[in-house]
Amino acid sequence: MPGKVYLVGAGPGDPELLTRKAWRVLQSASVVLHDDLVSEEILRVLPRSAQVVNVGKRCGAKGISQIEINDLMVSLAREGKMVARLKNGDPMLFGRAGEEMEALRQAGIDYEVVPGVTAALGAAASGKISLTDRRHASRVVFVTAHRTSGTGLTNERHVAEDTTYVIYMPGNRYADLAAELQAAGIGAEIPCVVISRATTKDETIYRTTVGKLPQFPGAAAPSLLVVGSVAGLSAGEEAREEELSGEIRTEILSLAMQHPFHSYGRGGVE
Q1: What is the pLDDT of residue 20?
Q2: Does the N-terminal or the C-terminal CB of the chain have fewer CB atoms within 10 Å?
Q3: pLDDT of residue 42
Q4: Domains in the chain: how many in total?
Q5: Left if phi > 0, otherwise alpha if psi is -120 to 50, otherwise beta: which for 98?
Q6: Please, is 44 exposed, middle or buried when counting C-beta atoms within 10 Å of its C-beta (0-12, 13-18, 19+)?
Q7: Domain range holding 143?
Q8: Known catalytic residues?
Q9: Does 129 lie in the same domain as 187?
Q10: Which of 223, 195, 11 shows the shortest CA–CA distance to 117?
């Protein structure tokens, strides 16, 4: 009998943010094919009985192609295996779920999508950023910086003031992003926050402004950039004091999270 493929959202990194369904699927899977950015904390809670394969494609690094991933999912399912295709965040946002679902449909393989907490929401929670604080933003725009043509923010000039922007996969393009944001009418004084490895024990939060963003030294992947007035509110009392002086203090905050999942391990990952 043919197996089945589950496209599973791993969430932003903290195993406690896995949905109950994602947890159940992962604990039952014969094979887990995971992206490179899935956190070590998530990998450590996978069952010892599962075959775990890293099929990640990091920028600038040669690895498995998307076609090879598609073929692998199909062949494993045809062997009767239950396959979990584990993706960071939510499978349907800035991933290649569309291509993978098409390949599975064409091969006649049964599949199901298990949504996850997308990185933007995990990062907003860690940074205590209300993305749609009604006093400052009535809309949120998710874009990716992982495009040769830029983020496509040039059409935002007339609506930028009422918007929170969440930029996925900024890489090290902070100077370019600052220029794009300002070209879109987003002022140099607008607060922004870079959140790296959100919700994990290695999380860092860097607060600055659009104008000072080119000075940012960089952050470990996965990371994202939140831009807008709401980002200035997230620093709490410190932010209010800084507003009185007319400046947003640049800072790095480290979050060390402790919970049972972080110490639970599968004894190595294959």
Answers
A1: 96
A2: N
A3: 95
A4: 2
A5: alpha
A6: middle
A7: 119-254
A8: 35, 57
A9: yes
A10: 11
